[in-house]
Task: inverse folding
């Protein structure tokens, strides 16, 4: 098992104010990260990942943060593609160490 930080969209409540002074609640989606474990036997492929809108990732993660896309095999996962925090070379090194 390897420990990863999965990037996911989280709904947050945002209270905004109208021009007349009344408030209303709206929900926005922001990126967040959560720790999880993945069995390396289920990993099919890993590749570098870049967000298309840089403002989305920059709002939550420090500038220069590297991301990777991990594709997992199996029917028991919510999705087969996981966006994770970490560079492609980091995961290559980590998986090679675990295979030894």
Result:
């Amino acid at each position: 098992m390897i420990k990863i930080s999965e990037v996911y969209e989280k709904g947050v409540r945002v209270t905004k104010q109208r021009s007349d002074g009344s408030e209303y609640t709206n929900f926005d989606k922001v990126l967040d990260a959560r720790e999880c474990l993945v069995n390396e036997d289920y990993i099919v492929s890993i590749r570098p990942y870049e967000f298309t809108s840089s403002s989305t990732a920059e709002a939550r993660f420090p500038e220069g943060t590297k991301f990777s896309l991990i594709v997992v095999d199996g029917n028991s996962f919510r999705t087969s593609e996981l966006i994770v925090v970490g560079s492609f070379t980091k995961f290559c090194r980590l998986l090679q160490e675990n295979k030894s």
